[in-house]
Amino acid sequence: MVVAVDIPRFETERLILRAPGVADTAPMLGFLASDRAEFYGGPMNASDGWHKFSAYVGQWVLRGYGMFSVALRDTDQCIGMAGPFHPDHFDEPEMSWLLTSAEFERKGYAAEACRGVLDHLFTTHGWRSVISYIDRANAPSRQLAERLGARFEAAVDDLVPNCDSYRHFAAGPAA
C-alpha cells in the first residue's frame, strides 16, 4: 500500500525543493552517520539514521507539512533538507535545514533553500512566523538564521538542550 500525500514541488534559481524520496535515502543516511550530524543526534548507525530520516518524511503524513529534499536543479541530486520539523514534544514547528556534505557548503545553497521554504510557508500556508532551535556551538547555522532575518529570542534549554531560538517572520522582524 502506498499513501499518497500532496507534497509541493518548487524551484529556486539553482535548486529543486521536493518530496523526499527513496533516492534521497543514501545521502541522508550518509549524513546522519557522519560527524556532520552532531547537531541532529548523530553520528548514528544505519538503523537510527533510517528512523530519523523516516521521521522527517513522516511529518508530511502526520502534519501536512514537513522538510523538503533540497536537490540541485541540474541533476536532481539530493544535497540536503530544509523545512518545518514538528515532533510531538515541540509546541510549534521548527524551521530546520541541513546539507549532506561539506562540498555543498559556502555556496549559498542552504540560504537559497531556506528562503524558498520560508516564502512557501508564509505565502502558501499563511504562517506569520516560525522558530529555529540552534545549538549554541553551531555557528554556521546561527549565522544563516541571522542572514535570513531571524531574530534571536532566548535559550530553550527546557525544550532543546544547549539551544537558543531564532524566530523567522513573514514580513521581517515584528516590532
What global shape is seen?
globular
Supply the helix-strand structural class: alpha+beta
State the low-pLDDT regions, or none. Answer: none
Annotated CATH architecture: 3-Layer(aba) Sandwich
Mean pLDDT score: 94
| CATH superfamily label | Gcn5-related N-acetyltransferase (GNAT)
Q: Number of DSSP strands?
A: 8
In DSSP terms (H or I, runs of 4 or more residues), the helix count works out at: 4
In percent, how helical is the residue content? 25-40%
Main β-sheet description: 5 strands, antiparallel
CATH top level is: Alpha Beta
CATH topology annotation: Aminopeptidase
Assembly type of the shown chains? single chain
**Helix-strand topology string:** EEHHEEEHEHEE
Q: List the strand order in the largest sheet.
A: 1-2-3-4-5
Q: How large a portion of the residues is in β-strands, by DSSP E? A: 25-35%
Euclidean distance between termini CA atoms:
49 Å
The total domain count is: 1
Please give the radius of gyration in angstroms: 15 Å
Walkthrough of the structure:
By secondary structure, this protein is of the alpha+beta class. The chain has a single domain, classed as Gcn5-related N-acetyltransferase (GNAT) (Aminopeptidase), CATH 3.40.630.30. Helix content is 29%, strand content 25%. The protein is built from 4 helices and 8 strands. The protein has helices at 25-33, 46-63, 109-123, 139-147; strands at residues 10-11, 15-18, 68-72, 78-85, 94-99, 129-135, 151-155, 163-169. A 5-stranded antiparallel beta sheet has the order 1-2-3-4-5, with helices on both faces. Strands 6-8-7 form a 3-stranded antiparallel beta sheet, covered by helices on one side. α1 (25-33) crosses α2. The chain is globular and about 40 Å long. The mean pLDDT is 94.
